[in-house]
């Protein structure tokens, strides 16, 4: 090699490695990245602003309602007839109806959703997973009013044939609404739980298989405990959706407040009352109109406490892998 090329090579070799990078960073500021960061921050603020707006919208009429009706009467009495001439404001029948339907729904959805997630994560092949998971998630895209009519026209007659407790097409039951609602939230629980299980490192499974564990043992003792925080979050999201469901309970469970734990009877939930009263004849500013916001505020507080509990559980059982 001649002297000139050798001198050029030595000159390049002696240059500090950080010089081109610093020059490039100074000469080409990343405006696009800054714009994306701003857009993402605005997206996060939209959810916060929406929550604050909901609280503000509920707070005014709710405070006016409790200036007329005491909190003890609202939460402690068992008669609910706010739109009648002889008004009664005990919200316990609505709370009971909401809890009964929700318990039935999660009793159906939790084991079936978790079972579907375990199958998709641990047993199904890649080709089967690509087919079954989208088909399962199709249930999440069906309008809830369709589920409501399915509960009324198919599930309710089936239940009447087993338990002849009601007759005629006007029969309503919390059991029918809860069963169909459970079917509706299966995709939510199954999809989120399967995502949490898929995030468990493959090395944990391979170590268990190397010790002679079966697929069921790996799923029960390795995968599910490792993904427990994600599974809990999926359960809480499914419960929140069941608590906030309107059309299924309005169609299949009935519109009569009923303080009972018997799922074979008709009852009204909090969301069903809000939907019925919101499209009724209650004049703006009246006590009947304000009950809509009072019940909505109670529902908001219930879901908020549920989400706070879920955050605590997720943080407690979260597993971090490196």
Structure write-up:
The protein has one domain: Orthogonal Bundle (MetI-like fold), CATH 1.10.3720. 74% of the residues lie in helices and 1% in strands. It has helices spanning 3-13, 18-27, 31-68, 71-76, 92-123, 126-137, 144-162, 174-198, 202-210, 215-226, 228-244, 247-253, 270-278, 287-317, and strands spanning 80-81, 88-89. Strands 1-2 form a two-stranded antiparallel ribbon. β1 and β2 form a beta hairpin. α7 (144-162) packs parallel to α12, α9 (202-210) packs antiparallel against α10 and α13 (270-278) packs antiparallel against α14. The chain starts with a helix and ends in a 5-residue tail after the last helix. The relative contact order is 0.13.
What structural keywords apply?
mainly alpha; MetI-like fold; two-stranded antiparallel ribbon; 14 helices; disordered N terminus
Question: How would you summarize this macromolecular structure in one to three sentences?
Answer:
By secondary structure, this protein is mainly alpha-helical. The chain is 74% helix and 1% strand.
């Amino acid at each position: 090699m001649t002297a000139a090329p050798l001198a050029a090579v030595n000159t390049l070799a002696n240059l500090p490695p950080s010089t081109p990078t610093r020059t490039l960073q100074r000469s080409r500021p990343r405006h696009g990245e800054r714009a994306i960061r701003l857009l993402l921050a605005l997206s996060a603020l939209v959810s916060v602003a929406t929550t604050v707006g909901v609280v503000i919208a509920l707070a005014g009429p709710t405070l006016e309602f409790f200036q007329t009706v005491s909190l003890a009467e609202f939460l402690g009495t068992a008669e609910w007839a706010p739109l009648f001439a002889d008004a009664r404001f005990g919200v316990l029948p609505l709370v009971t109806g909401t809890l009964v339907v929700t318990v039935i729904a999660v009793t159906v959805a939790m084991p079936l959703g978790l079972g579907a997630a375990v199958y998709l994560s641990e047993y199904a092949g890649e080709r089967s997973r690509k087919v079954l998971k989208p088909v399962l998630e199709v249930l999440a895209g069906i309008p809830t009013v369709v589920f409501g009519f399915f509960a009324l026209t198919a599930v309710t007659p089936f239940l009447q044939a087993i338990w002849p407790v009601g007759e005629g097409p006007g029969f309503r039951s919390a059991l029918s609404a809860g069963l169909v609602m459970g079917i509706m939230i299966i995709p939510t629980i199954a999809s989120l739980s399967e995502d949490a299980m898929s995030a468990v490192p493959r090395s944990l499974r391979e170590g268990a298989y190397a010790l002679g564990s079966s697929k069921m043992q790996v799923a029960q003792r390795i995968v599910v405990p490792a993904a427990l925080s994600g599974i809990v979050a999926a359960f809480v999201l499914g419960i929140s959706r069941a608590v906030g469901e309107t059309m299924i309970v309005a169609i299949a469970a009935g519109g009569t407040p009923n303080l009972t734990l018997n799922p074979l009877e008709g009852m009204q939930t909090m969301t069903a009352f809000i939907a019925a009263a919101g499209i009724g004849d209650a004049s703006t500013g009246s006590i009947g109109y304000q009950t809509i916001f009072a019940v909505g505020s109670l529902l908001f507080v219930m879901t908020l406490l549920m989400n706070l509990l879920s955050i605590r559980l997720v943080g407690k059982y979260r597993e971090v892998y490196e």
